[in-house]
Amino acid sequence: MDGEPLIQLVERLQALCLQRGVAVATAESCTGGLVAKLITDVAGSSAYFRGGIVSYSNDAKVGLLGVPADQLEAHGAVSAQVARSMALGALERTGSDMAVAITGVSGPGGGTPAKPVGLTYVAVADRDGVQVRRFVWTWDRSANRDASARAAVELLLERVSARNETGGAR
Hints:
- By secondary structure, the chain is an alpha/beta fold.
- It has one domain (6-161): Maf protein.
- The chain has 6 helices and 5 strands, in the order H-E-H-E-H-H-H-E-E-E-H.
- It has a 5-stranded mixed β-sheet, with helices on both faces.
- Strand 1, helix 2 and strand 2 form a beta-alpha-beta unit.
């Protein structure tokens, strides 16, 4: 995984969120709170980070984020539909301007032919809608989680960058 160091991405996210007045939240499954940890590793994060929800089990996705149980049944926890619902649930429950959600199969077990190890969905929701991206990482558990966290921060950065100074989409 090449590119800008993750801590620098998070520092850029913080600066941009503070500049634009954007409060963010996280809803994490396979990353287990890693994105929230990365955000709070940077001093001053309390000025824009509302909080994070780690919803590792399906029951937590339903109870804490309001993911519809029938959606989990129809599509499984690792799906674009569930990532979308997780992001919307975090947005609503935290009163944030933007929320990111991550759900996936980090490995080494748990994969199937239809949903292999490394399959991850990252969603970002704000008042203008939801964007979902699909990834398939090919590393070990730790690297897959790191890649998912990076993808989440990068998608947040893109979405905040797309907002104009007054808070709406450009």
